[in-house]
Every structure is written in C-alpha cells, then in structure tokens.
C-alpha cells in the first residue's frame, strides 16, 4: 500500500505551522493515495521519524516522500536524506522514494506575476526578490535564475535580490539602498512559502522605511499555482513516472 509523507520545514511561529498544515491538507484532498501524512523537519511535531512510523503502522509498504520546500538547499540535499536513510534501515521492508522541491519554474514565476498585483500598478517597477539565503552555491544560482525570469517580464524594470540569512546582500541593506536611489515603485516579493519569523522581519523592515511607493506582495503559498504543482508532482510519483533516490536531490 502506498503512502505519501509531506515534509514541511517547521517554525517556532505556530501560525506558520498551521499555514503549512492547511496548505498541504488542501492538496491531500486532491491526491489519490490511501495514506497521507504531514510532518516537519524541525521546530514542530510530528517529526519525520514519527511521520514514517505512522505511515508504516497504517500499512504502508511504499512511502513517497514529498519535500515542501522551494529550492534544493542543505535541508533537501543533506538533512532530510540522512534522516530517511536512517529510517530506511529501520524499516527495510518498506520502499522509500524522494521527490523534488518546487525548484526554478517559469510556470510558477508567471503565476506569481499574475497574482501579485504588479500588473495593477500601472508603471514598470523595481522588484526586490527576497529569498531566505543559503550557503549552497547551487541554491544561490537558482535564486539568480528565478530573478532573471522575473526580470524578463514587461512590468519589471529590473530585479534586485536580498537575502535573509547565509548570503549577501542582506535584505534590509538592499531595501535601504533602493529607497535612497529609486524613484520608481519598489515591489517587495518574499520568495517564501509561508509566514514565519522571516516574513515578520520583512514586514518590520517595510514599516521602518519611509517610501511612498513600496508594495509588499504576499508570500507564495497564497498562490494557487503552488498547490497545483504540488498535486501534479505527487500524482506523478504515485504513478511512478518520477523517482528520485533518497541520496540524491536533483534540480528540476
């Protein structure tokens, strides 16, 4: 029997965990698997180990693991696979398969542009893409690729990138620079799936900067396209059209 285990990051902010659970639960209603469970990598229960155990107790012989992450950074490439390898040894009779994060997607960028309100501004804007940041060079390259996709839009004059952790330039520094040098509308796009402490940090920085043309877009899980893509990819894995080994985290 097949099971789906959705792995979210987790947050100290209860609101963020509730959002992640609601997002995945809404998708589960459209996924054709008899067993579906949600767990968190860190900071919130249930853990990955608890999620796997629950699937097995419900009769799962095959578990499709779906990471609810934007890009393949250290968590997706190292932390989750290491935990899954340990659990695979604990349950050798159960088959594990591991999916991809959302990754770099023109379809998602188009959906974000259409749903962010940028087209309603009426002027070409400077877009500040705010990413979490990573020490992983491939992840930073993915962020730059996403920025280039946004920059190709007719509504965008240029795209600047600011990071919230582990990479430079820092978001607050980049925002301050743009406020001082840009007369055009500044659209801040949090490239984050859910609310959380990082989103609260962005909101605080926007309140502190006195600029009459700053527009703060919603974070990404508000956009239906992310649910649709998650459902599509999960169904592909259920049909065994897609299989990514646990010890590999490939970029789509």
Instruction: Tell me about the largest β-sheet.
Output: 4 strands, parallel
Any idea what the CATH architecture of the largest domain is? Answer: 3-Layer(aba) Sandwich
Return the domain count.
Answer: 2
Q: What sequence of helices (H) and strands (E) makes up the elements?
A: EHEHEHEHEHEHEHEH
User: Separation of termini?
Assistant: 27 Å
The backbone outline, from C-alpha atoms, is elongated
Q: Provide the residue-averaged pLDDT.
A: 92
Low-pLDDT sequence parts: 248-252
From the alpha carbons, calculate the radius of gyration and give it in angstroms. 19 Å
Strand arrangement in the largest pleated sheet: 2-1-3-4
The CATH topology of the largest domain is given as Rossmann fold
Structural class: alpha/beta
The first-level CATH class of the largest domain is given as: Alpha Beta
Number of strands: 8
**Helix share bin:** 40-55%
Quickly count the helices.
8
Per DSSP, what share of the residues sits in E-state strands of 2 or more residues? 15-25%
Organism: Bacillus yunxiaonensis
Protein name: Sirohydrochlorin chelatase
Keywords: Lyase, Metal-binding
InterPro entries: CbiX-like, Sirohydro_Cobaltochel/CbiX
């Amino acid at each position: 029997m097949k099971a789906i285990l959705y792995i979210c990051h987790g947050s100290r902010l209860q609101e963020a965990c509730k959002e992640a659970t609601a997002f995945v639960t809404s998708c589960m209603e459209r996924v054709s698997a008899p067993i579906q469970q949600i767990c968190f990598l860190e900071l919130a229960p249930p853990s990955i180990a608890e999620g796997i155990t629950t699937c097995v107790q419900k009769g799962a012989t095959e578990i499709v693991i779906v990471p609810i992450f934007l890009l393949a950074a250290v968590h997706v490439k190292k932390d989750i696979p290491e935990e899954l390898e340990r659990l695979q040894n604990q349950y050798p009779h159960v088959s594990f398969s591991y999916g991809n994060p959302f990754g770099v997607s023109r379809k998602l960028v188009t959906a974000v542009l259409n749903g962010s309100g940028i087209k309603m501004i009426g002027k070409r804007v400077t877009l500040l893409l705010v990413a979490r940041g990573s020490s992983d060079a491939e992840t930073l390259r993915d962020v730059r690729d996403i920025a280039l996709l946004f920059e190709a839009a007719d509504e965008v004059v240029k795209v600047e990138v600011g990071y919230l952790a582990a990479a430079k330039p820092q978001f607050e520094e980049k925002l301050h620079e743009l406020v001082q040098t840009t007369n055009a509308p500044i659209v801040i796009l949090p490239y984050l799936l859910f609310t959380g402490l990082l989103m609260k940090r962005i909101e605080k920085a926007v309140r502190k900067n006195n600029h009459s043309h700053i527009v703060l877009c919603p974070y990404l899980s508000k956009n239906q396209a992310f649910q649709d893509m998650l459902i599509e990819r999960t169904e592909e894995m259920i049909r065994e059209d897609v299989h990514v080994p646990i010890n590999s985290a490939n970029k789509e």
